Amino acid sequence: MKYLYIILLSTLTTTALARSGSDTLRLTLQQVVELAKANSIAAKQAATVRETKYWEYRTYKSNYQPQLALSGILPGYTKTFTQVQQPDGTILFQPVHNDNSSLALNFSQSITATGGTIYGTTQLQRFDDFDRHNVLYNGIPYGIGYSQPLFQFNSLKWDKKIEPLKFNESKQAYIEAQEKIAIDVEGYFFDLLLAQVNLKIAETNLANTEKILKVANLKYELGKVSKNEILQLQLEQINAQKAVGTARRDMEIATLNLRSFTGQEGDGKIVLEAPKNISRMIVSSEKVLAEAYANRSDAIAFSRRLAEAARDVAKAKGQNGLTATLTANLGFSNTATNIPDVYKNPQNQQQLQVQLSIPILDWGRSKSRAKTALANQQFTEYAVEQDKQTFKQQIVTQVSLFNVMKEQLVYTARADSIAGEKYQIARERYVLGDLSITDLGIAFRENDQAQRDYVAALRDFWGAYYQLRYLSLYDFETNKKITYN
Question: What is the annotated signal peptide range for this record (predicted)?
Answer without folding.
Answer: 1-18
